[in-house]
Design goal:
Strand content: under 5%
Shape: globular
Number of domains: 2
Number of strands: 0
Low-confidence stretches: none
Order of helices and strands: HHHHHHHHHHH
Radius of gyration: 17 Å
Number of helices: 11
Helix content: 40-55%
């Protein structure tokens, strides 16, 4: 079902998106999401919304915040920063941190790739390989223009392509399985389930 911006605004508001943010995104959702966007149509929209709304702090963040204190770095990446002394060079230094934690993996091989291909979009697309793959699906050169994913229209389109490519229909309706695929673990599972429930009610 194709929905109007007004309908999407109401849905997003019921999913705890702030009014000013919902006003920005409602037209984007109406423009990007059509009856053919998802293999299972509307039946997977609640799962999709529950995940992207959690990952993006209710659509407020399109780019990963890499601005951490040394203490927080030790909590977020305990194996990489086991002591404060290890974390201090990267504290409040987002670019250096991204290059440290993302460099040398996910296709990030050149100096600065960790920062250039840090997590973007409401689903948190990360790494040069992922940018390249989703870019092919979208028909956009995201490797050479990664900043496109900071624009809501392209960001939402990328999320849908990633979702359809990576979330099999057999996982739908199982928040734990979907969260593991999106997050790599179960971080924020309760909030994801809460948002999925809200989305299901709003879409009914």
């Amino acid at each position: 079902m194709n929905r109007t911006p007004a309908t999407w605004y109401a849905i997003l508001m019921r999913c705890e998106v702030k009014p000013t943010v919902a006003a920005i995104w409602s037209g984007v959702f109406a423009d990007v999401i059509t009856a053919r966007s998802f293999s299972q149509g509307d039946t997977e929209l609640d799962d999709f919304l529950g995940q992207i709304l959690h990952e993006s702090d209710r659509l407020q963040a399109l780019t990963e915040n890499m601005n951490y204190s040394a203490e927080r770095l030790c909590q977020v990446w305990p194996t990489r920063f086991p002591a404060l002394a290890d974390a201090r060079p990267y504290a409040r230094n987002p670019e250096a941190l991204a290059n440290c934690v993302y460099g040398g993996r996910m296709g990030n091989t050149a100096p600065g790739d960790g920062w250039r291909y840090r997590a973007r979009t409401p689903i948190g697309l990360t790494g040069k390989d992922n940018y390249g793959h989703v870019g092919v699906l979208m028909g956009q050169d995201l490797v050479n223009s990664p900043e496109l994913l900071e624009q809501p229209h392209f960001a939402l389109e990328a999320c849908i392509h990633w979702w359809e490519d990576r979330i099999p229909d057999s996982m739908l309706g199982d928040p734990e399985k979907v969260t593991r695929r999106v997050n790599g673990g179960l971080i924020g599972l309760a909030d994801r389930e809460h948002l999925t429930d809200l989305a299901g009610e709003a879409l009914a």
